[in-house]
Amino acid sequence: MKLSGKVAVVTGASSGIGAGIARALAAEGASFVVNYATSKPRADAVVADIAAAGGVAIAVQADMSQSADVVHLFEQVKAQYGRLDVLVNNAGVSQYEMVADLTEAAFHHQFNVNVLGVFLGIREALKLFGESGGSIINLSSILSTDPSPSSSVYSATKGAIDTMTFALARELGPRNIRVNSILPGLTNTPLTDGNFAGAFGEKLLAGSPLGRFGEPEDIAPVAVFLASDDAHWVTGEAIRASGGVRGAGY
């Protein structure tokens, strides 16, 4: 139970990688807040899974791109648990289109959720970290370093997250708050549902040394490590969890 007695928040945790991380952290003893934007039934299902396994969790709705929602989320954390030890910034959106077809609205939506949402979450979380510090884990992507065609804006948001990670590791180190990012590769989630089908999927699969796409359960153990005291000397790192895939298969 590497996280016994710890309090954790995972944003965007109603499905996919976020849900996988939530279940894994709870299995290691963390008390939990499952954040969701729109799908209360799926968030409640994650909470039920955690409870069935003997864990403690609540679900709290918040659109991470909206300051008032984020403030409310962390008010609920304080009311329920009184403090925070681990924040996983997982909430994110993607829209893959060539730049000539991408609208300003799509540009701002991705940056508002993927980048502003991380900033707002960290800003509020810092009010709840105690003297013992804690761990902030930002979900990035291998596209931050090796973007594919049609991913220019999404990849830029993930590059911004990595840069924020490096800067905040230096800024928050004196408070013993570690800040790292995880760069998943090609992972089966609702966000990528249908993207790996047909000949395109076969091309991507051919570039995987391990011969398969990732699953949320492949990413979750990395988050458990970064959240735990095992990673007490790890901060300011961008850790790839891609099964050896270096880019998007191009």
Would you write up a description of this structure?
The protein is α/β, with parallel strands linked by helices and 250 residues long. The protein has one domain: 3-Layer(aba) Sandwich (Rossmann fold), CATH 3.40.50. Helices cover 42% and strands 15% of the residues. It has 7 helices and 7 strands, in the order βαβαβαβαβαβααβ. It has helices at residues 16-27, 40-52, 67-81, 104-125, 152-172, 198-206, 216-227, and strands at 7-10, 31-36, 57-61, 86-89, 134-139, 177-184, 238-241. It has a 7-stranded parallel beta sheet with strand order 3-2-1-4-5-6-7, sandwiched between helices. Strand 5 (134-139), helix 5 and strand 6 form a beta-alpha-beta unit. Helix 4 (104-125) packs parallel to helix 5 (152-172). The chain is globular and about 50 Å long. The N and C termini lie far apart (41 Å). The model has no long low-confidence stretch (mean pLDDT 93).
Using the CA coordinates, give the radius of gyration.
17 Å
**Rough outline:** globular
* Second rung of CATH, namely the architecture: 3-Layer(aba) Sandwich
Strand and helix order:
EHEHEHEHEHEHHE
- Average pLDDT confidence is 93
- How does the helix and strand content classify structurally? alpha/beta
CATH superfamily: NAD(P)-binding Rossmann-like Domain
CATH class: Alpha Beta
How is the topology of this model organized?
Layout: E1 7-10, H1 16-27, E2 31-36, H2 40-52, E3 57-61, H3 67-81, E4 86-89, H4 104-125, E5 134-139, H5 152-172, E6 177-184, H6 198-206, H7 216-227, E7 238-241
Parallel strand pairs: 1-2, 1-4, 2-3, 4-5, 5-6, 6-7
Helix pairs in contact: 1-2, 1-7, 3-4, 4-5
